[in-house]
Each structure stands twice: as structure tokens, then as C-alpha cells.
Model the fold of this input.
Amino acid sequence: VQGMSYLAAMFLLYMDAYSTFQCFSNLLNSHFFISLFTMNIKEILRHVKVYELLFYKHIPDLYEQFKKMQISPEHYLLDWFLTAFTRALPIETSSRIWDCFLIEGEVFLYRTALGILLTSKKRLKESSFEECVTILRNIASEIKPDELFEAISAITVPSIVNEFISSTQKDSQ
Done:
């Protein structure tokens, strides 16, 4: 399935084949990745709604611009999530993201997506639809790791959203 090879490759960079298989299997059995890789539309829409809620809360002006330009999260977010940013960002940056993701959980992936938008906000606001989509699909050249992690740290997730994410994980088990 598209994206799985990027996830497996990340593990292979840091561990032997057997450990990679174990970690990869566990990752794929998480609610977040099951819903993405089985293309469960209902669950994917839940992920997109959580993301949009946080997007609107943290970057309302860019959110409104994206709405006017009809740039939907499907243009960029699913690729970022399917590969946990390993395809979109340099390996050093995505490794740091994975460290945080494995500790904090899927909420860190939402924060990372918003951090990317925050660090690219100025350029995105000055761009046309086509330019925005190109920027979002080729984001690696846009991002400086320190700026990205500073932006991620500025993203707060309300406890109600964390509870919602936790409840969707429990509902699927």
C-alpha cells in the first residue's frame, strides 16, 4: 500500500530486520494507520475534521484563504500522514518528528502538519492555488528544522481534542 515502504524504511534505518518487522506491525495495527491504510473513509474524515478544527484555531487567516482557494487537506495531508512525514521532509527532520510521534502519539502528527503550515504561511499566503499545492507537495525545500519545531511547540491541542482522539482509538479496539 502506498506509504508503507516509507514507514518500514524509517525503522530499517535504526534497527535490524526482525525489530523492524515487530515495530512496523505494531505501528500498522494502531487505529490511526489502520484507518488510513484500509481507506476507511469515515475514519479518514474524522482525522481531517480534527486537523481542520486545529487549523482553524491556530491559523484562521490561512484556513480561510485555503477555503476560498478550495485547497482541501486531501491535497496534501493524506500523503503527509500516510508516510508520517518521511516522504515530505528530510530524513533528519522526519526522524525527530518520529521520536516525538512515538512518545506523544498521533496528536503530534496534527501539530507537525500545522507547524509546516505556520513555517510556510507567508509564502502560502502570497501564492496561487497551483503554487500552494506545489509548495505543500514539495515542502522539504521550504522547511528549516529549528523553525519547524519552534512552530510545532507553539501549537497547543485542547484537552477536548485529545479526549476525542483517545475515544476514537478506544472505539476501534
Remarks:
- The mean pLDDT is 91.
- The two ends are 22 Å apart (CA to CA).
- DSSP finds eleven helices and no strands in the chain.
- The longest helix spans residues 107-125.
